[in-house]
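re: ur question from yesterday

yeah so i grabbed the chain u mentioned. its 373 aa long if i counted rite. heres the sequnce exactly as i have it in my notes:
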Amino acid sequence: MEVPQNLVRWAEDKGVVLNGIKPQRIPGRGLGVVATCELKAGETILTVPTKALRSLDTIPRSISRKLPPDVSLHALLAANLALNKTTKFAPWNAVLPTWADFEATTPFMWPEELQRLLPKPAKDLLQKQQAKFQQERETIVKAFPDMPRQEYLYAWFIVNTRTFYYVTPKMETFPHNDKLALLPVADLLNHADSGCQVSFSPECFSIVTDRPYRASEEVYISYGGHSNDFLLTEYGFVLTKNRWDEVCIDDVILPLLKMTQKVELEDRGFLGRYMIDVETAGCHRTQVALRLLCCKPGQWLKFVDAEDDGQASQGEVDALLSKLLDTFLQTIRKTLEDIVKLNIGQVTQRELLRERWKQIQSMIMQTTKSLKN
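ran it thru and got these C-alpha cells back, copy pasting raw so excuse formatting
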C-alpha cells in the first residue's frame, strides 16, 4: 500500500476527516493534497481533532520535567520528536521530509560559501535561525547529553517547517511564534500566496476552501504573506508567483549615507529595510532615505512629517533610484556568475540559490524599466 494511503487510514482511526481531498505525490515537488471531486468555495475539506495533534499536551513528563520551565515549545516538540523511538506515529513519520530533503533545500544545511551568497534578508534570517537553534540545543543537551546534533537538528526543522499556529489556555503567555502544534495530513498541504482558510477550536482544526477547485487540482493553504527570501530560509523553497515577494536594496543605499544621516534616519525609525516589490518602485522607507540623499534638508523634513507629498522631488528621486538599481544589477550578475563558478555543495542547493537571484534580477529589471518609462 502506498505511503499516503497508510497515513490516511491511520489518521482516520484518530478521528481525522477528509472530505473531497486526498494526499498525492506531486511530480517534482513531493507530497501534496489534491481534490478528488469538484469543490466549491466554503467547503470544509479537512477536520483534525485536537486529540490527534502533537502539541504541548502530548509531550511526556519524562521529557518536560528535565527541562527548564522557560524552554520554548519549539525546543520541547523537537526534543520529543528526536527522543520518541516508538512506532506510534510510524505512518505519519513516513511522510515527513527526510534529512536529505532538508539538506538539499534548506540554507541552514548549506556550505558557508553558499550561505554567504544569500540575499540580505535571507542571510539575516538565517543568522537569527542559527542563534535560536544553538541556544535551544544547548538547553536540550544539558538534559539529554547523548542526543546527536543531527537528530535534534532534523527534529527542530520538522517543527520549524510543519507546525500550525495553535493556542490553549496553558499557552496564552507563550510568544506568538511559539504557539505551535503538529497536525497529521494537514501538514501535507503546500503553500501558495493565497489558499484555504485554517481555523481551530478546543475540539478541532478545520480547513475550508477559499475558492472552487477542480477534480485533481492541487489544494493549497497559505503560510502567510511572506517574501521568497523568507520562504527559502524558513521552508526551503521559493514560489514562481508570489504577490508578497519583495527585494531589499539596503546594500546600495546604506553605503551612500553619512554617519550623521544614518543617525537621523534611525532617530526617525527609517534606517534600513529599504524594499522594492512588484507594485512599488521603493517603499515609503526607501523614498525617505533617497530624499535624504538628493533633496534639501527642509524639503526632506516636510516629506518625513507628511507636510509634502513629494511629487515635486519625485523625478529626482526616481533618477537616483534608477542609477542605484543599475548598480545593484551589476552586483546581481556578479553573484550569479559566482554561483555558476562554485563547485561546492549540492547541485540542487546551487540551483535554488540561483533561482532566487534570478527572481530578484527580474524584479529589479521591471522596476528599472518602469522608472525609465
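noticed a couple things. The longest helix spans residues 314-341. also The chain is about 45% helix and 15% strand.
anyway ttyl
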